[in-house]
Structures are given as structure tokens and as C-alpha cells.
Amino acid sequence: MLGLVGRVAATSASGALRGLSPSASLPPAQLLLRATPTAVYPVRDYAAQTSPSPKAGAATGRIVAVIGAVVDVQFDEGLPPILNALEVQGRETRLVLEVAQHLGESTVRTIAMDGTEGLVRGQKVLDSGAPIKIPVGPETLGRIMNVIGEPIDERGPIKTKQFAPIHAEAPEFMEMSVEQEILVTGIKVVDLLAPYAKGGKIVALVYGQMNEPPGARARVALTGLTVAEYFRDQEGQDVLLFIDNIFRFTQAGSEVSALLGRIPSAVGYQPTLATDMGTMQERITTTKKGSITSVQAIYVPADDLTDPAPATTFAHLDATTVLSRAIAELGIYPAVDPLDSTSRIMDPNIVGSEHYDVARGVQKILQDYKSLQDIIAILGMDELSEEDKLTVSRARKIQRFLSQPFQVAEVFTGHMGKLVPLKETIKGFQQILAGEYDHLPEQAFYMVGPIEEAVAKADKLAEEHSS
After folding, report:
1. Considering only the top CATH level, what class is 53-129?
2. CA 280 → CA 40, 133, 321, distances in Å?
3. For residue 401, what is the DSSP state?
4. Rounded to 5 degrees, what are φ and ψ at 72?
5. Where exactly does CATH 1.10.1140.10 map onto the chain?
6. Alpha-carbon torsion (13, 16, 22, 28), positive or negative
7. How far apart are CA 243 and CA 342, in angstroms?
8. What DSSP string describes 94-137?
9. Within its chain, how far is the Cα of 462 from the centroid?
């Protein structure tokens, strides 16, 4: 999994997620007076899935209490397992409740996936006999759906006969692939210093916005992941899964935990934080059939990287790309901190010795420059030794060469976006480290693609200066 972390209120993240253990227990904490049946779901059989509507003869309950997004439902017999989906009857719009706790012998406490306005005591509720199921398959491509799989793009129903539950076990350890391969993004700073593990090509949109009830926001990530898993497991494809923002998943889980009356843990987060995160992240992995590469935005509360929410997320990331205010203040975009960004696949056995040596050389010279900045600020450049002056000169060129014009920003910057192959990226930084361009001005390295463009820009600057 890849992760992009910003030092600011909102941030972006990238990552190919790896399951850290072969098995994961499902997250719900339970208030029990007796042993409680909890749903355990085997490997999905997509061909056997049918419509997610409650079946005839399903257990019937009635609402006994409504407390905001929490709804208590009483059953005379056939208590639904944890995580089962219930549907409220007698409403114009579909309202799905997910079982979160068992209260005694006959009552379940549920979380609503939509607003609970208009619910009354005694209203009929049907047990679907399974967790929330959503449509999957090629028919979902290009469509937008909500947490319960309903299309919200005003293009009619999603015409598929295949449905999958949003709760599932992570792939077995023996099914996972151990091969490591770089996902080349064409972004110099990412490909060189914090490369992403390879993933895929397909995107479908699943929405659960901040105006949604906490139950919907806590499950929308699982809904999107379920769509991605179909393409990995059934179509054998590489899937690219964007999650913006993974902190909202944790935040929604904290809200749900508070609504259920659980005692909070550190900093007020839910006691099941690590389990909730692990259960989801371990499903985002590469198997022998295909892969899922997840790009996740991570909000860091108060810029505290030790906060339980981002810290728990980092444990599952293969690569972390940190966005820095200080870099942005220099006008360098993408504003990636080259010293704080990391990648687990930055290993000479995976990326190759040449790539590894160049990346570490770039980081060393930037770290040396950082340690000299206080001396420069107090005494000036003249007090530095000739060797340190050369280090500063090359570091400033590298710093500017890490900038790159993006296609998405063309309308704002006027610079055409540049996609740089990995070999070109390595070659360019290798030549700068070797001193082949010590004679060029540092301005020539700003907002260019490959190193040849920097040389051409330097020639152009020289012509303008001479004229």
C-alpha cells in the first residue's frame, strides 16, 4: 500500500497495501449476556450471489428504540449475526441497518446507513440473512454508487446479476504473491526516492461524503474495496483503488463506537481501531491472480505523526509520500519531502543497485545541505569550505530538479505536463551527483522533465543573458 501524508490539514496518500498477517478477526466489539454468533464469511463464490433483497421467510423484527444513527431492533426468534444487514419496511426510500451489537437474548443494536428521520417504534424490520451486498462486475465501471450499492449517477440501475458482501476475509497467505515490482508513475521524486509497488488500471467511484451518517462513512471504504476485489479475483486484473480520505474511515469508526457506548481508548479513538484498520487493509493486497494498489490520502491531526489514527495506518503502508509546507513555500511542486518520504521496496534487490545508490546519494546530499542551512543563515555562504559550497550548489540543483510540471496543473501554471521514465530520472540525478552539470545555473533545473530539458533551458537562459 502506498501512502501520501501532508503536513497540512488535508493531504494525499498513495500505497500498495500488504496484509501483515494471514488472518484477521472481524472488528465489532460486542455487549453480550451470552455467546454471540458472529458472521464468518468464506472465500466469495460470485456466481452463487443473487439479489441482496431479504428473502421470503426471513427473520422479522421491530424497532424498539431510535437514538440518532443507532437503532435497536427486537426479534422474537432468529437473532441475526453481527454484521448482518437489516432492511426497514414501510418506507419510500431504502434504509439498511447493520447489526453492531447483541443486547441480551432478543435485541440487536444496529447502525443506520442513512438518515433515521421518520422511524417509529414498532416499525417492521427484515433480516437479509447476509451482510450488505453490492453489485460487482464490469457493469459497475463508469458508474457511481453509494455505500449500499445504489447508483447515484441518475443513469438507472446497475444491470448485473453478481453481488458480493462488503465484509470478507483477507486472502489466504498462500494465495498472496511475493513478487515486488515498481509502479512507475512518471513523477521523478516519487519514482526515485519512494517508489510504489505495482498495482493496476481500473477505477469505479463509490461515495460516502462527510454529510452522510457515520455508519455509511464507516462502511463506504469496504464497499469500494469489494468492487476492486471482484476485478482482482475474478477478472485477474490489476486494480488502482483511491481512498480519500482514510482518516475519515477512522473518524467514522470513532463516531460509531461512541454511539454504541463503547469506552474510548487513546486520544478518544475506538478501542477496535487497530482491528478495524487491519481488517480492511489486509484485504488490499497482491494475489497470484491480480493485484490492488491503493492510493490513500491521510489527514494528520495537528501534524502529529504519532497520533493513533495515522500511526495505525502507517503500519500497513508500503510507501509513504509526505507533503511539506516548507517545500511548497519554496515554490517546488510536487511539494514532496524527499527526506521524510519512505518506501519498503527501496531495496537494491528489488529496485536494482543503480537506482538504490542514486536515491541514497540524493538523500545524503540533501541531508548535508539541510545541516548546513543554519550556518549559511548566520554566517553566509562565504564561511563554508569549498567542498561544502559544492555540496550546497548540487543540493539546490537537485532540489529544483525534483520539481516537475503536472498535466493537471497546465491551466494554472502554463507549463506543459511532463512524464519522465524511470531510466531518465535515474540518469539525470546520477549526472548531477557526478558533477556533470556544475556549470549550469540552478534556475535551469526548475520545473523541467528529463535532464535534457534542463540543459536546453540553461542554453536558453544563457542566450537571453548575453542579448
Report:
1. mainly beta
2. 15, 16, 21
3. H
4. -95, 130
5. 352-466
6. positive
7. 19
8. --EEEEEEEETTTEEEEEESS--TT--TT-EEEE-SSS-EEE-S
9. 45
CATH class of the domain at 352-466? mainly alpha
pTM of the predicted model, to two decimals?
Answer: 0.78
What count of other Cβ atoms lies within 10 Å of the Cβ of residue 375?
13
Distance from C-alpha of 206 to C-alpha of 228, rounded to nearest angstrom: 11
CA dist., res. 331 & res. 325, Å (int): 10
**Separation of alpha carbons 354 and 303, rounded Å:** 34
The answer to whether 159 touches 125, Cβ cutoff 8 Å, is no
CB 88 within 8 A of CB 106: no
pLDDT at 5: 54
CB-based contact 2:182 (threshold 8 Å): no
- Under 8 Å CB-to-CB from 386, ≥6 apart: which residues? none
pLDDT for the residue 47: 54
| Amino acid residing at 312 | T
CATH code 2.40.10.170 region(s) in the chain: 53-129
The tens-digit pLDDT sequence of the chain (467 residues) is 555 554 333 333 333 333 333 333 333 333 232 333 444 444 566 654 444 555 555 789 999 999 989 999 999 988 999 999 999 999 988 999 999 999 988 999 999 999 999 999 999 999 999 999 999 999 999 999 999 999 999 999 999 989 999 999 988 888 887 777 888 889 999 999 999 887 543 445 565 677 788 999 999 999 999 999 999 999 988 888 889 889 999 999 999 999 998 999 888 999 999 999 999 999 998 888 888 888 898 988 888 889 999 999 988 888 889 888 999 999 999 999 999 999 989 999 999 999 999 999 999 999 999 999 988 988 888 888 999 999 999 999 999 999 999 988 888 878 888 999 999 999 999 999 999 999 999 999 999 999 999 999 999 999 888 87
Q: Give Rg (Cα) of the chain.
A: 26
Q: Do the beta carbons of residue 423 and residue 190 sit within 8 Å?
A: no
Q: Which fold has domain 2-27+135-321?
A: Rossmann fold (3.40.50)
Q: Side chain identity at 16, as an amino acid letter? A: A
CATH 3.40.50.300-classified regions of the chain? 2-27+135-321
β-sheet bridge partners, residue 295: 2, 242
The three cell numbers locating residue 67: 437514538
Other Cβ atoms within 10 Å of 4 Cβ, number:
25
Nearest 10 degrees: CA dihedral of 378, 380, 385, 389? 120
C-alpha closest to that of 93 among 152, 169, 22: 152
With H, G, I as helix, E, B as strand and everything else as coil, classify residue 170: coil
- All cell numbers assigned to 111: 447502525
